[in-house]
């Protein structure tokens, strides 16, 4: 049985179920939208889907076209390099390249360590500096200061009783 991730990613990419392009095409007032809507075949290279719907290279160069003509003949006439280039016309990656491990784990571990470090800095900051302490007593915090009263009355603060 295939993992759910493989099936989901393949279906989403092939059908464009969840994507901006599908929403954009449905709500566009500009006529024809050139985004694929799922009815077009897409190249999808994954080890769970060994034969993609389309070849990797759609437009062939003159050298590749002659190689494709040579492919129709006996395969004993083809060299190893010809067979490899024919494979590269049809597929982007080999199974060995698809099975190669990615370095995504380094990004995940690095992000987790940065998050833990920032959290540790915040905890340390709270322990060192503690909570915010008011420097003005509570019974004075409800009244405006002398400076505010003087600016409202346009007088010097020394004239306020």
UniProtKB/TrEMBL annotation:
Its main location: mitochondrion. GO terms for cellular component: mitochondrial inner membrane; respiratory chain complex IV. The chain crosses the membrane at residues 107-125. It is found in: Mitochondrion inner membrane. It holds the Pfam family COX4. The keyword Protein transport does not apply. Pathway: Energy metabolism; oxidative phosphorylation. The keyword Protease does not apply. One of its GO terms (biological process) is mitochondrial electron transport, cytochrome c to oxygen. SUPFAM superfamilies: Mitochondrial cytochrome c oxidase subunit IV. It is a single-pass membrane protein. Keywords: Membrane, Mitochondrion, Mitochondrion inner membrane, Transmembrane, Transmembrane helix. Component of the cytochrome c oxidase (complex IV, CIV), a multisubunit enzyme composed of 14 subunits. Belongs to the cytochrome c oxidase IV family. Component of the cytochrome c oxidase, the last enzyme in the mitochondrial electron transport chain which drives oxidative phosphorylation. This is Cytochrome c oxidase subunit 4. It comes from Hymenochirus boettgeri.
């Amino acid at each position: 049985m295939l993992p759910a991730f493989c099936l989901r990613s393949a279906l989403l990419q092939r059908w464009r179920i969840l994507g901006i392009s599908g929403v954009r095409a449905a709500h566009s007032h500009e006529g024809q939208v050139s985004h694929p809507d799922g009815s077009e075949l897409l190249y999808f290279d994954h080890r769970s889907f060994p034969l993609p719907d389309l070849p990797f290279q759609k437009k062939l160069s003159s050298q590749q076209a002659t190689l494709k003509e040579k492919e129709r003949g006996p395969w004993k006439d083809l060299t190893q390099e010809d067979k490899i280039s024919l494979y590269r016309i049809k597929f982007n990656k080999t199974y060995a390249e698809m099975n190669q491990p990615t370095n995504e784990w380094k990004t995940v571990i690095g992000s987790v360590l940065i998050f833990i470090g920032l959290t540790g800095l915040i905890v340390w900051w709270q322990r060192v500096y503690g909570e915010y302490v008011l420097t003005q007593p509570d019974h004075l915090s409800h009244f405006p200061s002398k400076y505010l009263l003087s600016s409202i009355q346009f007088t010097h603060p020394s004239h306020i009783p």
